Amino acid sequence: MKLHRVQVVLEEDQWAEVQRLARRLALIRGRRVSASEALKELVARGLAEEAKRKEDYLALLEELSHLGGEAPVGQDLMEEDRRAHDERLGP
User: Fold this and answer.
1) Where in the chain are the domains?
2) In this structure, which of 21, 32, 43, 79 has its CB flanked by the most CB atoms within 10 Å?
3) Which residue ranges have biased composition labelled Basic and acidic residues (predicted)?
């Protein structure tokens, strides 16, 4: 698996949460867990949740199509919602 190095700037409270997560994971796993490893786990969880939401959304569209309604074609409503959410969060 090819890995990519990234640089992330976190707010103080976010950094504290990552450190707390690393300590909790270390207790569970019985070994040291770095902040980097904790962040990778958070990213993996977030991506899995996003994939599940998209899967659920597509299943709902499929259900709607069987009810005789029309699903929006060519529109990625998930992407539109994500973009609107990002805009609310700001830069």
Assistant:
1) 12-89
2) 21
3) 80-91
